[in-house]
C-alpha cells in the first residue's frame, strides 16, 4: 500500500533522518557546498592571522561558479531520482501517482515509514552532492598544480555541467514517461461520455441483508501461483479456498497503486490527482483532499450507508498515508482503524513491527476476525474492508512469526505467510457458518510492483490482478474478464441491492451482467485507454461539493 511503500512527497526533504543520517549529511554538505563556495571565490584573510573570509575574485565570477555547482547538484538529483523511485516502488510508477502523493500534504509525509524517508534523503538528496564535490576537487587540483591550464579546465567543467544537466533532465523525462503524461492532458474526454451516475439510480436492499468482507491483499496477482523459476506457488493457501476466481482481471489506468485500487473498486472510476484549484490555492504542495477524496462521488459505501450498513476499514499502518483517512471519512465508513486506533484499542505494542510501525498482517487478520464475529452477533448488516501490507515490493515485510523459509524467501515467502494467515481467518469464518449471511471477496489492490529484473525472472508478460468470490451458493459470474471499475456493481449485485445487473455503475459493468461479449470488449477497450485519465468536466464535479448518495 501503495502505499506499502509509496512515492515520497519532495516536501518531506530531511524528515525522519536519524542521528547517523544527520552526521553524514553535515559532512557531505560541508565538503560539497562550502568547499565549492570557497573555490568559487572565497579565501582566508591574512590580516591578523584570522580566518576571515573575503572575496578574492569578482562577485560575478563567484556567482557563476556557485550556479555551476548548483547545476551539478540538480543534475545529480535528476539522474538519481528515477532510479530511486523505481528501485523503491517498482517499475510501474506513473506520473499521476507521483502527483497524487505530492499533493497529499505534510500529514501524509508523517505517516510514511521512517526508513523510507531516510532512504530518500540519502539517495536523492545526499548522493547528488558528490557531483559538485567531484567538480570542486578537480577544479582546485588543476588550479594548484597546473595554473596555466585552469581556464581550460573551467570551460570543460562548464560544458560538462551543461551536458550532465541535459542528461539528467532527459533521464528524468524518459524514465517517468513525461511526454506521454503531457499528451494525456490534451487527450479526448471519453470519461464524461462513459460515466453513468449512480445517484440517478435506485437501490433497494433485499428483505434479508447480507454482509460483506472485502479483503485487499497488497500486490496480489495470479502469477504468484506460478513464480519462475520452478513454478513456485506462493499463494496456494488461498487458491485452495472454495469460491469462484475470475481469470482476467486487467489493471486499468488510474488503478495501479493501493489507494487507487481501493478507490476505483468502490467507485467505478479511476483515481486522478486534483488540479482545478491549484491557482486558487497558490500552493502545489497543499493537500487537495481536505474536504475528502472526491466527496461528490457516489461510492458503494455511500449507498450501503443509506441502507443501514455499519462499515469498517482496517489496515496496519497510519491511516493518513495516501489520504486513506480522507476517502473513508468522506464516504460514510463508520470506523476507519489504523496504527493509532489499534494502539487505542489495546493491541500489544510489541506487534507493531511492519511498514510504518503498523501491525503485521497476521495481527490484522486476528483483529478483523474479532470485529467480524462481533458484528455478526449483533445481527445487523455490516461491511468490513481491510488491506494488508506485508507483501509489498521489493521483498515484503516478513512477520516475526513466520517460519525461517518464509522469512528468507524474499517476496514469495512474504506472500506464502500472509496468504496462509488469510486462509486461516477465512477458514474460521466458514467454520462459524459466516457464509450463511456474509459474502467474502479476496482481491489484489494492484499488480505486484516488481522491478524490471523481477518481471523478467519471475513473472509472465501477461499479468493479471487476483480476484475471488466466496459465497454460499458459489454464484458464478457471466464473464471471465473485468477491471477494478466492475467491482462496485458486482458487490451491489452480490448483496442483492440492484434489480438490473445490466445497469452500468460509473465506468463499471457487473460480472453478473448479461452484456454481449462484443459489447463488453468495446467498453473494455475504452476504459483501458490512457484517454480515460484525460481532463474531464464530469470528473471535476466529484470534488466541488457534497451531495446525497444514490437512492
Describe this structure in words.
The chain is an alpha/beta fold. Helix content is 44%, strand content 8%. It has helices at residues 19-39, 59-89, 95-102, 106-109, 114-126, 130-145, 150-175, 178-184, 191-194, 236-239, 258-267, 278-281, 300-306, 324-329, 339-344, 361-377, 404-407, 410-431, 452-458, 487-494, 517-527, 537-544; strands at 42-44, 53-55, 211-217, 244-245, 248-249, 310-315, 335-337, 382-387, 438-444, 467-470, 481-482. It has a seven-stranded mixed beta sheet, sandwiched between helices. Helix 1 packs parallel to helix 5, helix 2 (59-89) runs parallel beside helix 7 and helix 16 packs parallel to helix 18 (410-431). The longest helix is centred in the N-terminal third of the chain and has 31 residues, at 59-89. The radius of gyration is 27 Å and the shape is globular. Residues 1-58, 276-286 and 545-551 have low confidence and may be disordered.
Mean pLDDT: 84
Ranges where pLDDT stays below 50 over 5 or more residues in a row are 1-58, 276-286, 545-551
Query: What structural class results from the helix and strand content?
Result: alpha/beta
- Describe the biggest sheet? 7 strands, mixed
Quick summary of this structure?
The chain is an alpha/beta fold. The protein has 22 helices and 11 strands. α2 crosses α5, α2 runs antiparallel to α6 and α2 (59-89) runs parallel beside α7.
Amino acid at each position: 500500500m501503495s502505499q506499502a511503500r509509496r512515492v515520497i512527497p519532495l516536501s518531506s526533504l530531511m524528515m525522519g533522518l536519524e542521528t547517523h543520517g544527520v552526521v553524514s549529511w553535515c559532512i557531505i554538505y560541508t565538503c560539497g557546498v562550502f568547499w565549492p563556495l570557497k573555490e568559487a571565490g572565497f579565501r582566508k584573510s591574512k590580516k591578523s592571522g584570522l580566518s576571515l573570509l573575503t572575496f578574492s575574485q569578482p562577485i560575478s565570477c563567484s556567482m557563476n561558479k556557485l550556479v555551476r555547482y548548483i547545476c551539478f547538484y540538480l543534475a545529480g538529483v535528476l539522474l538519481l531520482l528515477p532510479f530511486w523511485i523505481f528501485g523503491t516502488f517498482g517499475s510501474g510508477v506513473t506520473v499521476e501517482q507521483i502527483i497524487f502523493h505530492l499533493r497529499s500534504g505534510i500529514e501524509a509525509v508523517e505517516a510514511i515509514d521512517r526508513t523510507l524517508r531516510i532512504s530518500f534523503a540519502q539517495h536523492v538528496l545526499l548522493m547528488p552532492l558528490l557531483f559538485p564535490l567531484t567538480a570542486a576537487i578537480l577544479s582546485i587540483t588543476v588550479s594548484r598544480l597546473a595554473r596555466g591550464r585552469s581556464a581550460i579546465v573551467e570551460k570543460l567543467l562548464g560544458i560538462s555541467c551543461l551536458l550532465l544537466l541535459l542528461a539528467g533532465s532527459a533521464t528524468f523525462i524518459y524514465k517517468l514517461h513525461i511526454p506521454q503524461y503531457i499528451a494525456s492532458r490534451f487527450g479526448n474526454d471519453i470519461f464524461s461520455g462513459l460515466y453513468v451516475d449512480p445517484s440517478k439510480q435506485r437501490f433497494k436492499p433485499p428483505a434479508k441483508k447480507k454482509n460483506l468482507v472485502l479483503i485487499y491483499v497488497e500486490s496480489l496477482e495470479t502469477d504468484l501461483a506460478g513464480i519462475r523459476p520452478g513454478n513456485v506457488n506462493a499463494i496456494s493457501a488461498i487458491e485452495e479456498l472454495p469460491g469462484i476466481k475470475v481469470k482476467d482481471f486487467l489493471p486499468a489506468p488510474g488503478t495501479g497503486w493501493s489507494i487507487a485500487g481501493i478507490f476505483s473498486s468502490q467507485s467505478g472510476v479511476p483515481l486522478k490527482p486534483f488540479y482545478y484549484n491549484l491557482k486558487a490555492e497558490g500552493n502545489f504542495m497543499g493537500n487537495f483532499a481536505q474536504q475528502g477524496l472526491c466527496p461528490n462521488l457516489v461510492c458503494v459505501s455511500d449507498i450501503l450507508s443509506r441502507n443501514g450498513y455499519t462499515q469498517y476499514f482496517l489496515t496496519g499502518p497510519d491511516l493518513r498515508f495516501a489520504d486513506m483517512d480522507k476517502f473513508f471519512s468522506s464516504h460514510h465508513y463508520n470506523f476507519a482503524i489504523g496504527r493509532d486506533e489499534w494502539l487505542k484499542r489495546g493491541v500489544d505494542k510489541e506487534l507493531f513491527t511492519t511498514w510504518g510501525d503498523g501491525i503485521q498482517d497476521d495481527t490484522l487478520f486476528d483483529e478483523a476476525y474479532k470485529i467480524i464475529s462481533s458484528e455478526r452477533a449483533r445481527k445487523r448488516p455490516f461491511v468490513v474492508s481491510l488491506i494488508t501490507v506485508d507483501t509489498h515490493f521489493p521483498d515484503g515485510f516478513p512477520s516475526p512469526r513466520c517460519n525461517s523459509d518464509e522469512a528468507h524467501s524474499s517476496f514469495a515467502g512474504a506472500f506464502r505467510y500472509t496468504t496462509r494467515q488469510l486462509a486461516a481467518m477465512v477458514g474460521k469464518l466458514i467454520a462459524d457458518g459466516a457464509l450463511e449471511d456474509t459474502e467474502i471477496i479476496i482481491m489484489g489492490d494492484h499488480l505486484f510492483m516488481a522491478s524490471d529484473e523481477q518481471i523478467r525472472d519471475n513473472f509472465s508478460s501477461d499479468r493479471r490482478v487476483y480476484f475471488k468470490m466466496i459465497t454460499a451458493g458459489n454464484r458464478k459470474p457471466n464473464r471471465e474478464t473485468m477491471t477494478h471499475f466492475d467491482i462496485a456493481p458486482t458487490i451491489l449485485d452480490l448483496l442483492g441491492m440492484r434489480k438490473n445487473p445490466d445497469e452500468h455503475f460509473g465506468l463499471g459493468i457487473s460480472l453478473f451482467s448479461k452484456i454481449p461479449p462484443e459489447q463488453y470488449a468495446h467498453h473494455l477497450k475504452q476504459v483501458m485507454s490512457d484517454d480515460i485519465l484525460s481532463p474531464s468536466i464530469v470528473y471535476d464535479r466529484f470534488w466541488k461539493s457534497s451531495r446525497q448518495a444514490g437512492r
